Amino acid sequence: MALAGPVHAGPVLTDQAGRQAAVPEDPQRVVCLAPSLTETVFALKQGERVVGVSQFSDYPPQAAKLPRVGSYVRPELERILARKPDLCLAVKDGNPRQVVDRLEQFGIPVYAFAPYSLKQVLEMVPRLGQILNCPDQAEILHRRLSHSIDAARARAEAASSRPRVLYLAGLAPLIGVGGDTYLHELIATAGGSNVTVDSAGYPRLSYEDILRLAPDVVLLPSMGGRERAVEAKKRLQRWEHLPAVTQGRVHIVDADRFNRPGPRLVQALETLTALLHPGAEAVMESK
């Protein structure tokens, strides 16, 4: 089995998961174990450092051409080692701890992120800027993302209403978003009221739960293919007394922009604000 080359140890940093990670001084062969990490590294103009990515890392287009090292929840150790990385970027929830431990046993440092809130998503940028020696790019990106979020928040505060929103993070089974998630914050920032705010994490729902929650707006991500979202929309539209159906506000949205805690969340925020407050001026220019 091919192993990674020698890693020139750099500073010991505390990652977002609270772990100590001895990252190399100037990593040149980076493996990203989640699509959101791949997108963020490329947004920092550091894509040339990436030698391997997780399955479904398809944005930007250059990332789709890179070698795959397994899925987000099932990274394959041998595939990762074959890329001879000097650093792996991981996420606390999703990437199995046993794979992270094995990588470190092989001498490959792993820096983990825990993007549970919008603040933590934004914090990924300067952290990666430090790790990848690109503080100027990180500052520019962080400033742009922060400005977009602040502008959306200001618009929401000026809105005359806050529609009740159900975002279904999963469609089979139906999964809502709790009050401790970045998706809840996204809804609130865009000027909506999350109907599953009292739950923690990602609660499982039934269609009867949806009727009881009576949302004004339902958002269906195109996860696993648009066809599944279209079928879920058709089923919801049978419930004629559901406010979102009565008002014609059951929408299919781009799952990749919403469900990946990375730079494209501001595009999701723009979409969400337009859906909740139609006719209002766009928060930011689409990128």
Please tell me about this protein's structure.
Mean pLDDT is 91; it is low at 1-6 and 282-287. The termini are far apart. With 287 residues, the protein is of the alpha/beta class. The protein is globular, with a radius of gyration of 20 Å. Helix 1 links the parallel strand 3 and strand 4 (50-53). Helices cover 38% and strands 17% of the residues. The strands form 4 sheets. The protein has a 4-stranded parallel sheet with strand order 4-3-5-6, with helices on both faces. It has a 4-stranded parallel sheet with strand order 10-7-12-13, sandwiched between helices. It has helices at 35-43, 77-82, 97-105, 118-131, 135-158, 182-189, 207-213, 226-236, 243-246, 255-259, 265-276, and strands at 9-14, 20-24, 30-32, 50-53, 87-91, 110-113, 164-167, 170-171, 174-175, 193-194, 204-205, 217-221, 250-253. Helix 4 packs antiparallel against helix 5 and helix 5 packs parallel to helix 11. The protein has 2 domains: 9-138, Rossmann fold (3-Layer(aba) Sandwich), CATH 3.40.50; 161-275, Nitrogenase molybdenum iron protein domain (Rossmann fold, 3-Layer(aba) Sandwich). The chain has 11 helices and 13 strands.
